[in-house]
């Protein structure tokens, strides 16, 4: 029921994780740092105390949502990496609502709605191009990400700019901000929004007809067609729902981000959320529950990364290096089998065409 | 607008063309053999970083070679994962991008310069001075390589083998060709050109390394490959077209007159919009190798 | 043509021999694809390997040429044991194979395709020499082909000629040809002449076919393969069609199922002048017309590959018809979507049960409700009704005797082919659908399961369902069908009345592919 086969998947994730951290340790040593104190600081900074844990959860909040975007696509047999651009536009859409002086409940709701719509609209071209012209979504999403990138820069600098401080957009209105869960940290009620979204996506994929159809098409397009499922419908659903969660990520981020609740020019805090979400989705094995754990783990790495930088002087980007290596190894479908195979036969045998 | 002005734009486009053409030509080789490398962006980034370091250690030529070598190494790893280990190409490529982004930023910080590292003048590539302006020798390389690649792919037996492996690996297997090995080597060769492109950016054209120095050019190169229909000569043309728009953004940002009419951000968008339109228009008519993207199994 | 009475010329040593060859495939663990097969080819002879589809002919050819590894057994070339790990090993040992699925790179020219396999340096482009030699070989064997033509522009027959020249280019001593005449019927004479000259020069030729006439005409000896086992080798001079049919299809006492005559005269399915292309863009259906009444079973007999699969796919909406009509219960359903046809009450038990009939990574329950899930009570609005799905699946599983350990936890992939088929049967027939397209429904099932399936079909027929049955099992066709159609090369070449037809007649028509005279 979605978690079936999960022990195998878990084993694979752990193996890949171990390799990633080992490689990271190697690089750390090569640069003359101490991996043990580095990793210690890392984990302390991630889960050591309430403050750290709250920061980890705060980091995880948007990552859960962007990971869901990729995961829904993956379950449908598609490679949707458009979350990056959709997040920018979602965040800006939420900001836009604050320009109009609306009653608080309405403003809050509309911010979410606009953000979600923005994400969905930005995903439409991808879906249409794929369904109508067979354009591979990898290329179209990346192009749209970059277009959104520059469009956002423009909007931040001009239409949405804060009249008092030109380096950021207008801050989101008080009534629209998500209250803090733990005072003194960055953790807002947004985390509940993300968790709720993950649960909804789980129900969507495993408890609805359309979710069933999406998964069927993702597993076996031929059999799904045989069963009467129509591909273009699946394409539309997958990309639009992906756009919804990505837009929501942007909203939740900007509406829950102390102290300014705005987007800065250059978008330093939003850039990368889409791609990080991709890694989170892979490591969470594209399942909403796995994604929640993976996002918290990742958020922890990011929070702890700062500690690692502070105490062990290892730049926090090491975290991303580990990420990349883990994802690379997760690309191999039979990773577990590979390792037992490696132990039996020497590396010489690699360089011949092999049978399965 | 006078002729000198237009010539300046043309020259700038040539400079901008180089990384896209090099990467695109390399990817043509790789995709002809059947592997789709989305990690090009990361490889360019790594090439830029390693190239800069190499140039500072031993001069520009060394830098270019180091960048090429870095691309080769990563390309080999990608090839191995996707052939012998039956890895999913898209995911492996994403892993490479993440790894590269992290490693380059890590390196920059380690060097003590947050975010931006300018390559010292002494290590930069020396341009050839002509009365018509300063040319980088890499421009010549970028013009010649697609021609050489065309000859390789369409006028040698090796090229036949590469294309056969991408088109009908079964037939190539029957003919006694080692599918996995050839795909690995083709992808590695392609990736090495991407690494070279990165080194060119940091040592020659822009002269610095940041974590965004690749600026999506790896993906534009992928789109160029689509546009080219796996013909290196068309990849050269595509590189020039995209390079033209790429360069245009920079020019526009220096021209306040144009700024008033079109904000620079929209000009910056142009390469990506153009890419999207081209791919959407061309994709129906372009033919990819029949076995591209599918790991090969004999039974 | 070679005289049957002439003794085999040249050396009579055995040039290629396979002893005790076994081959199993991962994922198919019910039975060996090749079961202890012995075969030998003498120098200077043409040895035909005869059998129906699925008999294992292509598999053994691939084993003998190095494309597949043997699971067990040993190959000998000129008396010496060899291990063939790749096609290159095969070529090195003088074995050249012409595949049925031509191993040609379509966008390349003939010369480029041949150049691909040469041992010259990679940096050369030896096209001029290749061209010259191709023209030479064309003349020598009278297999004319233009070396500069692109393979994809050539006709099927010409492509095959190119493939043969490609193999001959490497000067093999042993030639294996897999169903070479399936595409070049008009030029078969030329091919046989060429093969005869090769045999006279001392080559050993293994010629694979499912056509009895060819086996008798072209070969010196013939070995019959059935379901992976060798049924024996005969000298063609000393055997005849009847014996070969018996060896190919087996001796069976016909099964007689109780049946009442077809009640209704109303037409459930009408197919008019249907034309369609196969996956490789060659014509698969060339003007097929027939009707099926309510409560009638029409059985399509014949070797697969003659259009039966494509016919089933067109009727169920999975393949485009280029011409003609499919009319279900009076309404035109030509080229409608699979979903529409499912809603019209058409069930489809597909040929490729693991690739199309089920989604292997999904659970048993999910697969059983694959098509029904869209309607109430399996779903209430957009939501799945889990309890109903579970209950229904439980019922289907027990009613159809599928051995499954759990409904919701493990992947369907781990089930045996037979159990998967039972699930599919359950899913496709529980509603007593008005129309069923059943393609090779009993393949891989044990005798008991086959009987159950037959009983099920008869019950459905009683209740007024119509069945379009495609099967290579002649017993099944004869037991179940009210009428029998034989397809050959995209056309119906014969229509028999189920009760009156004689097995040998049908078998002969299948094996020769010719319409009755």
How does the helix and strand content of chain A classify structurally?
mainly alpha
Which structural class fits the helix and strand makeup of chain C? alpha/beta
- Give the oligomer, counting copies of the same chain as homo and different chains as hetero: heterotrimer
Strand content of chain A: under 5%
- Low-confidence blocks of residues of chain A: 345-356
Q: Rg of chain C to the nearest angstrom?
A: 25 Å
- Pick out the low-confidence regions of chain C: 1-11
Mean pLDDT of chain C, rounded to whole units? Answer: 84
Give the N-to-C terminal Cα separation of chain A. Answer: 28 Å
Number of helices of chain C: 17
Question: How would you describe what is shown here?
Answer:
The complex is a heterotrimer of chains A (356), B (299) and C (517). Chain A has 356 residues and is mainly alpha-helical. Chain A has a domain at 60-296. Helices cover 70% and strands 0% of the residues of chain A. Mean pLDDT of chain A is 84; it is low at 345-356. In chain A, 56% of the residues are buried. In chain B, a hairpin with a 2-residue loop joins strand 2 (128-130) and strand 3 (133-135). Chain B has helices at residues 3-33, 40-58, 60-82, 89-110, 137-155, 157-167, 169-174, 179-205, 217-228, 232-253, 256-261, 264-282, and strands spanning 117-118, 128-130, 133-135, 208-209. In chain B, helix 5 runs antiparallel to helix 10 (232-253). Chain B is built from 12 helices and 4 strands; from the N terminus they run H-H-H-H-E-E-E-H-H-H-H-E-H-H-H-H. Chain B is mainly α. Chain B has a single domain (17-282), classed as ABC transporter involved in vitamin B12 uptake, BtuC, CATH 1.10.3470. Chain B starts with a helix and ends in a 17-residue tail after the last helix. Chain C has 517 residues and is an alpha/beta fold. Chain C has 3 domains: 1-94 and 172-251, P-loop containing nucleotide triphosphate hydrolases (Rossmann fold, 3-Layer(aba) Sandwich); 104-170, no CATH class; 271-512, P-loop containing nucleotide triphosphate hydrolases (Rossmann fold). Chain C has helices at residues 57-65, 87-92, 110-116, 127-141, 156-168, 188-200, 212-218, 241-249, 308-315, 338-343, 353-357, 364-368, 386-399, 417-429, 447-462, 474-480, 503-512; strands at 14-23, 34-42, 46-50, 72-77, 80-82, 95-98, 174-178, 204-209, 221-226, 229-235, 267-277, 283-293, 297-301, 321-328, 331-332, 346-349, 379-380, 383-384, 435-439, 466-470, 483-488, 491-497. Chain C is globular. The chains are: A mainly alpha (356), B mainly alpha (299), C alpha/beta (517). Chains in contact: A-B, A-C, B-C. At the A-B interface, helix 5, helix 6, helix 11 and helix 13 of A face helix 3, helix 4, helix 8, helix 9 and helix 12 of B.
């Amino acid at each position: 029921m979605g978690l079936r086969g999960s022990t195998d998947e878990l084993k694979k994730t752990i193996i890949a994780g171990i390799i990633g951290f080992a490689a990271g340790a190697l690089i750390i040593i090569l640069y003359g740092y101490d991996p043990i104190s580095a990793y210690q600081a890392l984990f302390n900074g991630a889960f050591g105390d309430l403050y750290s844990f709250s920061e980890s959860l705060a980091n995880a909040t948007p990552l859960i949502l962007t990971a869901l975007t990729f995961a829904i696509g993956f379950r449908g047999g598609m490679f949707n990496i458009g979350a990056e651009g959709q997040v920018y536009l979602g965040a800006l859409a939420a900001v836009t609502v604050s320009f109009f002086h609306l009653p608080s409940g309405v403003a809050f709701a509309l911010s979410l709605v606009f953000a979600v719509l923005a994400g969905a609209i930005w995903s439409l071209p991808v879906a249409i191009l794929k369904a109508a012209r067979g354009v591979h979504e990898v290329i179209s999403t990346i192009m749209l990400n970059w277009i959104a990138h520059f469009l956002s820069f423009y909007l931040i600098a001009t239409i949405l700019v804060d009249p008092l401080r030109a380096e950021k957009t207008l801050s989101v209105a008080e009534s629209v901000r998500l209250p803090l869960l733990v005072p003194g940290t960055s953790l807002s009620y947004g985390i509940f929004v993300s968790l709720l979204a993950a649960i909804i996506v789980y129900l969507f994929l495993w408890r609805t007809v359309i979710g069933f159809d999406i998964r069927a098409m993702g597993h076996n397009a031929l059999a799904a067609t045989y069963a009467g499922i129509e591909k273009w419908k699946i394409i539309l659903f997958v990309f639009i729902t992906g756009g919804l969660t990505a837009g929501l990520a942007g909203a939740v981020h900007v509406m829950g981000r102390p102290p300014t609740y705005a987007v800065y020019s250059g978008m330093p805090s939003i850039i990368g959320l889409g791609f990080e979400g991709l890694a989170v989705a892979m490591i969470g094995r594209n399942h909403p529950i796995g994604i929640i754990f993976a996002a918290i783990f990742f958020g922890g790495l990011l929070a702890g990364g700062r500690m690692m930088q502070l105490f062990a002087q290892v730049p926090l980007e090491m975290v991303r290096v580990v990420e990349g290596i883990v994802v690379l190894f997760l690309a191999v479908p039979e990773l577990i089998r590979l390792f037992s195979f490696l132990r039996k036969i020497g590396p010489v045998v690699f360089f011949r065409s092999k049978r399965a | 607008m006078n002729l000198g002005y237009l010539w300046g734009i043309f020259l700038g486009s040539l400079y901008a063309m180089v990384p896209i053409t090099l990467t695109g030509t390399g990817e043509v080789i790789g995709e002809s053999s059947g592997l789709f490398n989305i990690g090009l962006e990361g490889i360019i980034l790594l090439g830029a970083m390693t190239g800069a370091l190499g140039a500072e250690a031993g001069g520009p030529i060394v830098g270019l070679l180091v960048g090429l070598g870095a691309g080769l190494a990563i390309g080999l790893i990608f090839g191995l994962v996707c052939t012998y280990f039956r890895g999913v190409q898209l995911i492996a490529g994403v892993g490479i991008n993440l790894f590269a982004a992290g490693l380059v930023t890590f390196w920059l910080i380690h060097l003590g310069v947050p975010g931006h590292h300018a390559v010292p003048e002494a290590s930069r590539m020396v341009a050839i001075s002509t009365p018509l302006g300063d040319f980088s020798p890499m421009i010549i390389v970028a013009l010649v390589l697609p021609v050489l690649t065309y000859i390789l792919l369409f006028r040698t037996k090796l090229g036949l083998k590469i294309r056969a492996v991408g088109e009908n690996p079964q037939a190539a297997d029957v003919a006694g060709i080692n599918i996995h090995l050839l795909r690995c080597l083709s992808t590695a060769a392609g990736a090495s050109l991407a690494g070279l492109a990165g080194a060119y950016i940091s040592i020659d054209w822009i002269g610095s390394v940041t974590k965004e120095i690749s600026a999506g050019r790896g993906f534009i190169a992928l789109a160029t490959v689509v546009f080219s229909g796996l013909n290196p000569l068309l990849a050269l043309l595509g590189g020039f077209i995209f390079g033209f728009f790429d360069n245009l953004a920079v020019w526009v940002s220096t021209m306040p007159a144009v700024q008033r009419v079109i904000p620079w951000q929209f000009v910056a968008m142009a390469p990506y919009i153009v890419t999207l339109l081209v791919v959407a228009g061309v994709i129906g008519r372009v033919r990819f190798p029949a076995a591209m993207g599918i790991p090969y199994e004999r039974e | 043509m070679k005289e049957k009475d002439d003794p085999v010329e040249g050396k009579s040593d055995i040039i290629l021999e396979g002893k005790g060859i076994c081959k199993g495939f991962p994922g198919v663990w019910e039975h060996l694809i090749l079961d202890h097969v012995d075969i030998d080819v003498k120098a200077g002879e043409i040895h035909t390997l005869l059998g129906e589809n699925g008999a294992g002919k292509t598999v053994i050819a691939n084993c003998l040429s190095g494309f597949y590894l043997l699971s067990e057994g040993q190959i000998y070339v000129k008396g010496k044991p060899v291990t063939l790990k790749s096609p290159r090993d095969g070529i090195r040992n003088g074995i050249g194979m012409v595949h049925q699925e031509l191993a040609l790179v379509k966008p390349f020219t003939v010369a480029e395709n041949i150049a691909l396999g040469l041992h010259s340096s990679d940096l050369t482009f030896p096209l001029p020499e290749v061209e010259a030699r191709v023209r030479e070989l064309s003349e020598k064997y009278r297999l004319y082909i233009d070396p500069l033509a692109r393979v994809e522009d050539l006709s099927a027959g010409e492509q095959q000629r190119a493939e043969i020249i490609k193999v001959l280019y490497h000067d093999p001593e042993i030639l294996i040809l897999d169903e070479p005449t399936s595409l070049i019927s008009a030029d078969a004479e030329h091919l046989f002449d060429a093969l005869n000259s090769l045999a006279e020069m001392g080559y050993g030729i293994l010629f694979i076919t499912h056509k009895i006439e060819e086996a008798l005409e072209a070969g010196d000896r013939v070995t019959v393969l059935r379901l992976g086992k060798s049924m024996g080798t005969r000298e063609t001079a000393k055997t005849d069609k009847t014996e070969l049919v018996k060896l190919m299809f087996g001796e069976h006492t016909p099964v007689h199922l109780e049946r009442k005559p077809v009640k209704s005269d109303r037409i459930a399915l009408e197919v008019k002048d249907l034309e369609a292309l196969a996956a490789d863009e060659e014509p698969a259906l060339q003007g097929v017309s027939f009707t099926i009444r309510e409560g009638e079973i029409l059985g399509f007999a014949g070797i697969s590959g003659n259009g039966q699969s494509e016919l089933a796919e067109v009727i169920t909406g999975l393949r485009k018809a280029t011409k003609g009509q499919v009319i279900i219960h009076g309404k035109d359903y030509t080229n409608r979507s699979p979903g529409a046809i499912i809603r019209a009450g058409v069930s489809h038990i597909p040929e490729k049960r693991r690739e199309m009939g089920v989604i292997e990574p999904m659970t048993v329950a999910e697969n059983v409700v694959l098509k029904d899930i869209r309607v109430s009570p399996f779903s209430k609005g957009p939501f799945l009704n889990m309890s109903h799905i579970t209950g229904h699946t439980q019922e289907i599983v027990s009613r159809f005797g599928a051995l499954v350990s759990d409904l919701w936890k493990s992947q369907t992939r781990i089930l045996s082919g037979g159990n998967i088929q039972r699930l599919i049967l359950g899913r496709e027939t529980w509603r007593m659908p008005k129309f069923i397209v059943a393609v090779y429904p009993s393949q891989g099932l044990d005798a008991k399961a086959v009987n159950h399936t037959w009983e099920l079909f008869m019950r459905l027929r009683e209740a007024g369902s119509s069945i379009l049955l495609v099967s290579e099992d002649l017993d099944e066709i004869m037991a179940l069908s009210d009428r029998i159609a034989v397809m050959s090369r995209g056309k119906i070449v014969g229509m028999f009345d189920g009760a009156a037809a004689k097995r040998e007649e049908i078998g002969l028509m299948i094996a020769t592919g010719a319409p009755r005279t």
